[in-house]
Amino acid sequence: MRTLKLASLTTLAAGVMMAGSALADPITIKFSHVVAENTPKGQMAEKFKDLVEQSSVGDRVDVEVYPNSQLYGDDQVLEAMLLGDVQLAAPALSKFQKYTDQLQVFDLPFLFEDMDAVERFQSSETGQKLLTSLESKGLLGLGYLHNGMKQLSASEPLRVPEDAAGKKFRIMTSDVLEAQFEAVDAAPLKKPFSEVFMMLQTQAIDGQENTYSNIYSQNFYEVQPYITESNHGLLDYMVVSSASFWNGLPDDVRPEVEKALDEAVAYGNEIAAQENQEAKQAIIDSGKSEIIELTAEQRQQWVDAMKPVWEQFSDAIGQDVIDAAAASNEG
Ligand code: SIN
After folding, report:
1. Which H or E run contains 27?
2. Engineering a disulfide at 220: which of 41, 113, 215, 284 sits with its beta carbon 3.0 to 4.6 angstroms away?
3. What is the pTM of this model?
């Protein structure tokens, strides 16, 4: 009888514990980003949320997506992550300079001929190793996410490098991007993404560089009458989390969250080119901004003016990393 009582008490206790764990507060993943929802990153974040919800850990993990710098701007999000206030972000690769110099390879002007080359480099041994370049700072690189190639937008037509001389351009927080604009005698200003529209509208700056997707979704095209299709640089992202959060996820939860993230990133990468193409078409249809196509000779002038920047950063980035990235153009 006593044995029976003890057994039922044990069963009861186990039941209470199980109910307790099922009822435990869900794990919250705040995903903070700075772009609109109708961009490759915005859609990837929503996809991730949906996939987690549909997964076997959907009742234990809550994903909250904060687009458009609603929660943190790109100048604060990594610090917030290290403090545990944000669990996931995908800043542009140009925004990690405070943590590592190596990722600046992605900013070198005219390095990648197209997105296939970018894809090859990112999945190469060197590219994968760069995902670990933030680990000593407590951040885990969980994958690369594409946006696409950047174009130059401005208040006046930019056809040759001399057209940019003396003009103010907003840039992301990267010394390579600063050097790139200095190479054409322009004046670069490092500013958060959330301030760009206002600065363009008030003519505090003359231009900026971005993908069609961002130029369209942030309405830059409404206040920039010219866009030069330069494809001079890359705007891609690294999906990051803090090592303490990610490694601290329960062992039965982390694989499911990882799976959802991998699928969402693959989805974002799949739609990025199409998103940029649609944004370009929408800009053309608006009639508000003229898209300037460079002749081969004009484009070569930009290459000649900007490419010396590679040399300036070879020590900081590592010549081996630059060589590996350049080799990805060979297919
Ligand atoms: C982003 O796409 O996340 C923002 C890019 C920028 O700051 O220009």
Report:
1. strand 27-32
2. 215
3. 0.92
Let me know: does 160 contact 301? Beta carbons within 8 Å: yes
Contacts of 136 (CB under 8 A, 6+ apart): none
Which helix (H) or strand (E) segment is 170 a member of?
A: strand 168-171
pLDDT tens for each residue of 65-82 = 999 999 999 889 999 999
Residue 224 CA to ligand 1 center (angstroms) comes to: 17
Atom of ligand 1 nearest to the CA of 210: 8
The closest residue, in CA terms, to atom 6 on ligand 1 is 193
Question: Could you give the C-alpha distances from 169 to 142, 199, 204, in angstroms and in order?
Answer: 31, 10, 9
Site residues for ligand 1, CB cut-off 6 Å: 34-35, 41, 74, 92, 147, 172, 193, 210, 214, 235
> Where in the chain are the domains?
27-330
Q: Which CATH superfamily is domain 27-330 in?
A: Bacterial extracellular solute-binding protein, family 7 (3.40.190.170)
pLDDT, tens digit, 9 for 90 and up, residues 256-297: 999 999 999 999 999 999 999 999 999 999 999 999 999 999
Q: Given this model, what pLDDT does residue 23 score? A: 59
Q: Which two tokens stand for residue 241?
A: 């989390």
